[in-house]
Amino acid sequence: MQIEVLKSKIHRAIIIEANINYIGSITIDEDLMDAVNLIENERVHIYNINNGERFDTYVIKGERSSGVIGINGAAARKVAVGDLIIIVSYATMDFKEAKQFTPSIIFPQNNKV
């Protein structure tokens, strides 16, 4: 049996950019990506703490150590600069493996690891 489990979580990141004219995605500081084992183009789910919006998109690398968290494209209408969000990704794995798996979770301060 395969199940989906939490793989990566950035809890309470701050939106510092919302660019509706970009083609889509979320820009994440590469330091934050590394800290939770996210890779470029990986699907992530975004949960907006401020307004309850929930959506998914894919990751693009932001400048390392910049603290950038930016929502791009149409999803930029679902956030405001300054909103707190939770960024998560999930992985599919065997049930037995999932019982032993530990997700990567961080609680950044001002979008820094």
Notable characteristics:
113 residues; mainly beta; Barwin-like endoglucanases; 2 helices; globular
Tally of strands: 8
Range of helix content: 10-25%
Order of H and E elements? EEEHEEEEHE
The top-level CATH class is Mainly Beta
Largest sheet: 8 strands, mixed
CATH fold title: Barwin-like endoglucanases
Q: What is the mean pLDDT?
A: 97
What is the count of distinct domains? 1
Beta-strand content estimate: over 45%
Low-confidence stretches: none
> What is the radius of gyration?
14 Å
Number of H/I helices: 2
Structural class: mainly beta
Report, as a whole number of angstroms, the end-to-end distance. 35 Å
Any guess at the CATH architecture?
A: Beta Barrel
Label the overall shape.
globular
| Biggest sheet: strand arrangement | 2-6-3-5-4-7-1-8
Q: How would you describe this structure to a colleague?
A:
With 113 residues, this protein is mostly beta strands. The chain has a single domain (2-95), classed as Barwin-like endoglucanases (Beta Barrel). It is 11% helix and 48% strand. It contains two helices and eight strands; from the N terminus they run βββαββββαβ. The protein has an eight-stranded mixed sheet. A hairpin with a 5-residue loop joins strand 4 and strand 5. The N and C termini lie far apart (35 Å). The relative contact order is 0.38. The model has no long low-confidence stretch (mean pLDDT 97).
